[in-house]
Amino acid sequence: MGHRKQSAPRRSSLAYLPRGRASRIVPRVKYWPPYDGEPRLLGFIGYKAGHTTIYYIDNTPSSPTQGLEVAKVGTVIATPPVIIAGIVGYTEENGALKEYTRVWASNIPGEIKRNIPTWRPNEKEKLEKLKNSIDKLREVRVIALARPKLAGLPKKKVDLIEIKVGGPIDKALEYAINKLGKEVRISEVFNNGEYVDVIAVSRGKGFEGVVGRHKVKIQPRKKRKTRREVGAIGGRSPAYVTYTVPRAGQLGYHRRTEFNKRILLMAENGLEYTPKGGFPHFGVVKTEAIVVEGTVPGVPKRAIVLRAPARPPRLHEAPQIIMVGVPR
Length: 328
Description:
Blueprint: E1 40-41, E2 43-57, E3 69-78, E4 82-93, E5 96-104, H1 123-132, E6 139-146, E7 159-166, H2 169-179, E8 183-184, E9 195-201, E10 207-208, H3 210-214, E11 249-250, E12 255-267, E13 289-293, E14 303-307, E15 320-324
Antiparallel strand pairs: 1-7, 2-3, 2-14, 2-15, 3-13, 4-5, 4-6, 4-8, 6-7, 9-12, 9-14, 10-11, 12-13
């Protein structure tokens, strides 16, 4: 018997398990970072439009290109205003958050009431209950209503997402009540140069084999069975395959979080950053938009949730922008 390799580098990663399809197209935020400043929303929702090139002066400390002009890819995200459709108060029970009460706004536009609860007679009573139970509350969130139609999408159904209100509980509740039924713009939530975390559903690629899914090594030419498989899936006893063995299955369409994406530009009219002829598979950005540094998961028109950074870096200054787009 010739030389036999006794060890090999691990194929693929066990960081994301299970690798199944995302449960919803608009991802739910599972963690909100602590915030003690003035009350404001800690998140926003937008729609991915496409990519562009940003030329700016690098102001990252200790960077090899600090002070020089660099060209980076930027992602344009359409961020139409959201409507605060409701307020949710949470209490703490056995170390976990539990919904205390939920209040819906009464002045929601009629054309978008199709998929949300309508105003009920006891909503005023729930609002008074929320005000009088400030000592019981541990967290205040708002129900943000995003309208894809304003971003130029053909989708008629609105997108709902819960967003935490940062700050002390009393001020956060007061802020939420003042904003109930009103519009909130991206400029009221984030500033230019600020870092955000991006939560989205990645591009779906369907059922994929073990080589394409886990990048395992293709077997030699004289393999008795198939070549695009793992060398062994385990012993005969116990009679099951462990979760650490790479297997074929779903690839893509996973919920993913990317940390610390810097907002390079913010504009009231996204037409400024739209290329001639519009973005492929999206078209022209007709509403407010931002440009974040780097790429974000998902395909054009997909919902993107922007969250306050969980692990923010020290740098919070907007760089000097030289040019946007490819020079002609």
